[in-house]
Each structure stands twice: as structure tokens, then as C-alpha cells.
Amino acid sequence: MEVLYLAEKGKLPVDAVKKLDDALREENSSIAIVPLDSAVARAVAQISRNAVPDMPDRIIAATAAHLGVPLVTRDRQIQASGIKTIW
């Protein structure tokens, strides 16, 4: 959803959504869709609203933290929040 949102805002190329969809459909893709479940919801509470005020960004950061994986982002607020990031 975030890729679609950013493409609609003109912050990502329009074809980014199709490229992501294609990558997700690849048989041996290293990209996976994970559910927004109660464990992620609990992890959101661990991401400071002051540090990351935008709820979609908090959900993305909390998902990465819950899964124990670094988040690929150049968002300065997320990077400063203590979430392990790449980029």
C-alpha cells in the first residue's frame, strides 16, 4: 500500500507498483507480504508517536521490528527512531 501511495504522490515512479507486484509473484522472491496482525499491532505501541508521528510509517517500522529485520528506508524520522534501517 505504501508503494502505491508514494507512486500516486509522485514520490516513486508510476511503474513501481507493477515492478513490486511482479517481484512478489516470482517463485523464489525474497520479498514477502506479512499480515498486519495483533503482534504487529502490539509492536506499534513500542514505536514512539513523537519519533514517528505518521501511523502508516509506524506500522511499517513496527512490522520490521517485530520480524527482526532491517527496514529499507531513507525516512529520517524512522532512521532516528532506533529502528534498524538500511539506506
Word description of this protein:
This protein has 87 residues and is mainly alpha-helical. It has two domains: 1-33, no CATH class; 34-87, no CATH class. 48% of the residues lie in helices and 5% in strands. It has helices at residues 2-8, 16-25, 38-44, 55-67, 76-80; strands at residues 71-72, 85-86. It has a two-stranded parallel sheet. Helix 5 (76-80) links the parallel strand 1 (71-72) and strand 2 (85-86).
Summarize the structure.
This protein has 87 residues and is mainly alpha-helical. 48% of the residues lie in helices and 5% in strands.
- Ranges with pLDDT <50 over ≥5 residues? none
What's the structural domain tally?
2
What structural class do the secondary elements suggest?
A: mainly alpha
**Percentage of β-strand residues:** under 5%
| Overall outline | globular
The span between the termini is 20 Å
Order of helices and strands: HHHHEHE
Amount of helix: 40-55%
Which keywords apply here?
single chain, 87 residues, 2 domains, mainly alpha
Topology:
Blueprint: H1 2-8, H2 16-25, H3 38-44, H4 55-67, E1 71-72, H5 76-80, E2 85-86
Parallel strand pairs: 1-2
